[in-house]
Design goal:
- This protein has 315 residues and is mainly alpha-helical.
- It has a domain of 214 residues.
- The chain is 72% helix and 3% strand.
- It is built from 14 helices and 2 strands.
- A two-stranded antiparallel ribbon has the order 1-2.
- A hairpin with a 2-residue loop joins strand 1 and strand 2.
- Helix 1 crosses helix 9 and helix 9 packs across helix 10.
- The radius of gyration is 21 Å and the shape is globular.
- The termini are far apart.
- The model has no long low-confidence stretch (mean pLDDT 84).
């Protein structure tokens, strides 16, 4: 029971971190249709900016300043980069953002070095909040859960209960009509892209000291974020939220469950021997294939339900 509860809490924390990063990509990828491979780079920049600011002004100032800087960078990228290549189609956007991600990684290496930086958890939150049997649950993890929950509520309210959110949704579906009503559609797209990039930067501020702040952190988190967005469903913030928790729990439990498919079949009276077809595959422990499970689920969801769990469209 202790292992189950601790793993459940760790899975929730990791899943909410995925949501903080994937929520910005949901705005950009699912709504604007932009294949932004540089989104995880904003996550990395948020962590490095917060680390630098915290050296001089503390963590709490970095919590505000770093996402703002990432949002401004995102606005510049959309206005002077993506807007120019958008007319050439999604392939051009993909290549542009992929190249941008490589450039950002090299700039980070040149600025902060190749080794991880000592980005620490703030002292105010570096204590055990409660114990689960003999395992301590730190206050910073609860803080991550709180911030991600507030982020989910704020985005949902902003998109569904405010005039600005309604204009944004209308511009993403019927830009010509919104433009005819007097709204500046290119500016709306810039705002959406900047907001998505700022959310990724905020995720970097929160997750950079929880994990490790290093130049490869963008490419380690980027693929799983795309899995979350597609699995949850294009255009669905709630689907993104559910998929984030699901993927976080799967990857966390896969690390601690020392079982295989053969062990599962044994519970149903099916014995796996050396002569059984695919015997070697069935006896592989789950921790060895845990990192592959989200991508296997992505393949299955694309085969049987391309729109994702709660998506409203297939393209």
């Amino acid at each position: 029971m202790e292992v189950f509860l601790v793993t459940m809490l760790n899975g929730l924390v990791y899943g909410m971190l995925l949501f903080m990063l994937a929520s910005g990509l949901t705005l950009i990828f699912s709504m604007m249709g932009v294949l932004n491979f540089a989104h995880a780079s904003a996550y990395m920049l948020g962590a490095y900016f917060a680390y630098t600011v915290s050296l001089y002004a503390g963590f709490w100032v970095g919590l505000i300043v770093a996402p703002v800087i990432c949002g401004l960078i995102g606005a510049l990228i959309e206005q002077y980069g993506l807007r120019r290549v958008h007319r050439n189609g999604h392939i051009a956007e993909l290549l542009f953002t992929f190249g941008l991600a490589l450039v950002i990684e090299k700039l980070v290496q040149m600025s902060w070095g190749l080794i991880p930086v000592p980005y620490r958890i703030p002292a105010e939150l570096d204590f055990a909040l409660f114990k689960v049997y003999g395992t301590q649950f730190h206050a910073y993890r609860a803080f991550m859960l709180l911030v991600s929950a507030l982020m989910f509520g704020s985005i949902w309210l902003a998109l569904t209960r405010t005039r600005v959110g309604l204009v944004i949704q209308a511009a993403l579906v019927h830009p010509e009509m919104v433009s005819a009503l007097g709204h500046n559609v290119p500016r709306i797209f810039t705002m959406v892209f900047a907001a998505g990039t700022a959310l990724a930067g905020l995720a970097g501020v929160i997750g950079g000291n929880y994990q490790t702040t290093e130049p490869s952190m963008a490419f380690s988190m980027g693929p799983i974020v795309f899995v979350v967005v597609v699995f949850g469903g294009l255009g669905s913030l709630l689907g993104c939220f559910i998929a984030s928790l699901f993927m976080g729990l799967i990857q966390t439990f896969a690390v601690v469950l020392d079982y295989s498919l053969a062990d599962l079949l044994k519970n149903f009276g099916v014995m796996v021997s050396s002569s059984t077809p695919f015997a070697e595959l069935l006896t592989i422990p789950i921790p060895r294939i845990g990192a592959l499970l989200p991508y296997a689920l992505l393949v299955l969801i694309l085969l049987f339900r391309p729109r994702g769990l709660m998506g409203t469209r297939d393209t």
